[in-house]
């Protein structure tokens, strides 16, 4: 009888990586299933993919018009651009987190009856959502030139920022999917957080609108720096490697962006992914009994 | 490459009766207990726990086919779930070397909104096939399932038989190194069942290790070289498929026998001249043993019972006193002749000593299994040896 091997962090990570690589066809098929099922028998079809971002932009317009009216300044088109740029990743976050959280429980029959590495369920759920968000992303790209956004070298930041967001979403999704197997409370908590998360994430308003302290506090949210980064790089053509200063009528000039914000988010994304992958891996053999 | 093999080494599996803590309200007291070191070690039974599998060991290598039989809730499915890595054993060790093919829940991954074609790729991937392999075998899979007309229809419009057939067809094209089969033999109509069984038979006889769980005992008898009878998670009988099946079929009889008085000790029951009998032909069974002096007139020392393994029903019973054969105390060696007027299938011969007024077996012997085959296939329950000849116009 072989001795029971003590799990090590690197051993686990290697195992997870090889499982994911060897189940790539399964991940692809499951993501394809999620996408197909979403649009079959739906009259509006792929239009639903941009529903959440579009709704966010509409709500944002109302808020920004109100703010512009009460402070007596004019609404500018770059405000629409920054909301459009941030609403797609936000929609991706909301969709992926709720989908991934439910992924294990909603595939209960599979989990209890067939063996495959369980990581593939939240992973393919996030991938299916990625496809939706890509549609939204392409639409926004096509839209931007019409609202006065010109391309710049700073667009090179976009893949970096999107990667950080994607990894962070996957990390959170893995953790929540696993937690939801053991405690169904998680599902309700997640719904509440997703509903109110928009108030602690700079999506509708930009970070400087919250003032000096406010913008600093907001950056504790690991999703805030990459979202702000997207706006700064795409709409404002700023380099993310230098501090950014803002000025509002109420306050003096203040620094609302430090380059290390990005490092902070990247650390959350990579570290979080490793932690939640290990946690997931070590509890997955109990899923079939608990779920 | 290592030899494909399925191993179960002293496996125990604990389950909990009733709900496990699902909400924070139950969790917090439990965590507190655990933090204070009050919780007992994980591998021991706590209140409400029971062993679904107890100390089960087996090893299946190339060329071996192991059947697992037993009543509902005896631990068969749990055993398979541990083998397929769906569950981890509480104690002990289970391992599979080689590419595992599991014919279990063959349509579990189907999604009703997707078409048959899309589901073939999805289910194939869930079973561990590469997309390129599925593309390559797609036509064979569809042809085997016999539902080519409906392949582009959403599966929600399929009958349950159709989706089961499609699921089986995907699983049947896995080309595994090791095979695990659970109750998938009763899929579809009779014609499909025969085709499915034929496919499994080919796979099982191709020399790969196979574990089969089924309630269709005749299939176990045909496919398996060895079998384990499980009861409450324990292996209560292991040996040849025939031994395990006979132990299973007689389980309730044995428990009904108030005392095994030992009036007769049976040593062996053997079908002479091979275990395959042509339907309608005669066969002979040799029974040996010892009859004790305690034999009373109330007890018939030799009762012979023939059971169909497909249904478990008795198809024929006779005994020495009926046949006018006198059994005396001392060594017993009897040749029983039977005419197998039976439809093709597997049958079991049981022997017993029976207390006639009390209507219970007082001694049970081993059992033998024989197959009835028929060259001129017929449908029905009795072999009537029909013939057809030309007759003249007046009816003979």
The CATH class label of the largest domain in chain B is Alpha Beta
Distance between the termini of chain A: 30 Å
| Secondary structure category of chain A | mainly alpha
Beta-strand proportion of chain B:
25-35%
User: In DSSP terms, counting alpha (H) and pi (I) runs of 4 or more, how many helices of chain B?
Assistant: 10
* CATH-derived topology of the largest domain in chain B: Rossmann fold
What does the average pLDDT of chain B come to? Answer: 83
Give the beta-strand count of chain A: 2
Approximate shape of chain B: globular
Strand order of the largest sheet of chain A: 1-2
Topology pattern of chain A, helix = H, strand = E: HHHHHHHHHHEEHH
Provide the low-confidence segments of chain A as ranges.
Answer: none
Describe the structure.
The complex is a heterodimer of chains A (291) and B (396). Chain A has helices spanning 9-22, 24-39, 51-71, 77-106, 108-113, 120-143, 157-182, 185-196, 211-218, 224-234, 260-283, 287-290, and strands at 244-247, 253-257. Chain A has one domain. In chain A, strands 1-2 form a two-stranded antiparallel ribbon. By secondary structure, chain A is mainly α. Chain A starts with 8 loop residues before the first helix and ends with a helix. By secondary structure, chain B is α/β, with parallel strands linked by helices. Chain B folds into two domains: 5-18 and 45-235, Rossmann fold (3-Layer(aba) Sandwich); 252-373, abc- transporter (atp binding component) like domain (Coagulation Factor XIII, Chain A, domain 1, Distorted Sandwich). Chain B has helices at 24-35, 76-83, 116-126, 131-145, 160-172, 190-205, 217-223, 241-249, 251-256, 320-323, and strands at 5-16, 49-60, 65-69, 91-97, 100-103, 178-182, 210-213, 226-231, 234-240, 264-271, 276-278, 282-291, 299-308, 314-319, 330-339, 345-355, 360-373. The termini of chain B are far apart. The model of chain B is unreliable at 253-259 (pLDDT under 50). The interface between A and B is medium-sized, with 29 and 35 residues.
């Amino acid at each position: 009888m072989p001795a029971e091997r003590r799990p090590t962090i690197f051993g686990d990570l290697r195992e997870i990586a090889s499982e994911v690589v060897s189940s790539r066809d399964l991940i692809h098929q499951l993501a394809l299933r999620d996408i197909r099922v979403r649009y079959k028998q739906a009259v509006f079809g792929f239009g639903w993919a941009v529903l959440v971002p579009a709704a966010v932009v509409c709500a944002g317009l109302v808020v920004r018009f109100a703010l512009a009216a009460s402070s007596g300044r004019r609404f500018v088109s770059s405000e629409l651009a920054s909301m459009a740029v941030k609403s797609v990743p936000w929609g991706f976050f909301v969709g992926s987190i709720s989908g991934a959280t439910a992924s294990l429980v909603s595939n209960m029959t599979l989990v209890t009856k067939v063996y495959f590495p369980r990581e593939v369920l939240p992973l393919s759920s996030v991938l299916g959502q990625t496809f939706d968000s890509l549609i939204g992303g392409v639409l926004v790209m096509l839209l931007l030139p019409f609202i006065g956004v010109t391309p710049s070298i700073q667009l090179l930041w976009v893949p970096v920022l999107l990667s950080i967001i994607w990894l962070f979403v996957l990390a959170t999704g893995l953790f929540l999917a696993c937690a939801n197997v053991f405690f169904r409370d998680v599902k309700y908590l997640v719904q509440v957080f997703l509903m109110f998360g928009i108030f602690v994430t700079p999506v509708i308003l930009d970070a400087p609108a919250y003032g000096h302290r406010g913008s600093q506090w907001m950056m504790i949210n690991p999703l805030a720096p990459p979202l702000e980064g997207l706006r700064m790089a795409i709409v404002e053509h700023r380099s993310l490697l230098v501090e950014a200063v803002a000025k509002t009528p109420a306050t003096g000039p203040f620094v609302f962006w430090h380059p290390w914000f990005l490092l902070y988010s990247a650390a959350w994304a990579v570290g979080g992914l490793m932690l939640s992958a290990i946690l997931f891996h070590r509890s997955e053999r109990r899923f079939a009994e608990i779920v | 490459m290592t030899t494909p093999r399925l191993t179960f080494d002293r496996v125990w599996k604990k389950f909990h009766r009733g709900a496990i803590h699902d909400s924070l309200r139950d969790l917090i007291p439990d965590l507190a207990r655990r933090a204070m070191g009050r919780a007992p070690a994980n591998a021991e039974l706590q209140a409400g726990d029971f062993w679904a599998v107890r100390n089960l060991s087996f090893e299946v290598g190339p060329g071996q086919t192991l059947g697992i039989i037993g009543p509902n809730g005896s631990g068969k499915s749990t055993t398979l779930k541990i083998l397929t890595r769906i569950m981890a054993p509480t104690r002990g060790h289970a391992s599979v070397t080689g590419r595992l093919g599991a014919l279990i829940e063959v349509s579990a991954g189907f999604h009703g909104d997707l078409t048959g074609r899309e589901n073939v790729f999805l289910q194939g991937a869930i079973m561990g096939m590469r997309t390129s392999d599925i593309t390559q075998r797609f036509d064979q899979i569809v042809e085997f399932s016999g539902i080519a007309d409906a392949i582009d229809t959403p599966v929600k419009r399929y009958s349950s038989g159709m989706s089961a057939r499609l699921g089986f067809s995907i699983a049947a094209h896995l080309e595994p190194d090791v095979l695990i089969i659970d109750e998938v033999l009763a899929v579809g109509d009779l014609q499909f069942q025969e085709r499915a069984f034929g496919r499994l038979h080919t796979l099982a006889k191709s020399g790969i290790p196979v574990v089969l769980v089924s309630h269709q005992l005749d299939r176990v008898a045909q496919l398996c070289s060895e079998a384990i009878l499980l009861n409450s998670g324990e292996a209560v009988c292991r040996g040849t498929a025939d031994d395990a099946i006979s132990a299973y079929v007689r389980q309730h009889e044995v428990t009904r026998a108030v005392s095994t008085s030992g009036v007769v000790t049976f040593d062996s029951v053997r079908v002479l001249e091979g275990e395959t009998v042509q339907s309608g032909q005669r066969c002979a069974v040799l029974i040996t043993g010892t009859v004790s002096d305690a034999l009373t007139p109330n007890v018939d020392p030799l009762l012979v019972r023939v059971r169909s393994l497909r249904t478990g029903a008795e198809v024929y019973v006779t005994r020495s006193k009926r046949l006018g054969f006198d059994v005396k105390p001392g060594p017993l060696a009897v040749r029983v002749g039977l005419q197998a007027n039976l439809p093709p299938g597997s049958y079991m011969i049981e022997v017993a000593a029976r207390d006639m007024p009390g209507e219970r077996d007082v001694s049970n012997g081993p059992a033998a299994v024989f197959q009835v085959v028929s060259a001129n296939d017929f449908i029905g329950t009795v072999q009537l040896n029909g013939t057809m000849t030309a007759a003249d116009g007046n009816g003979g």
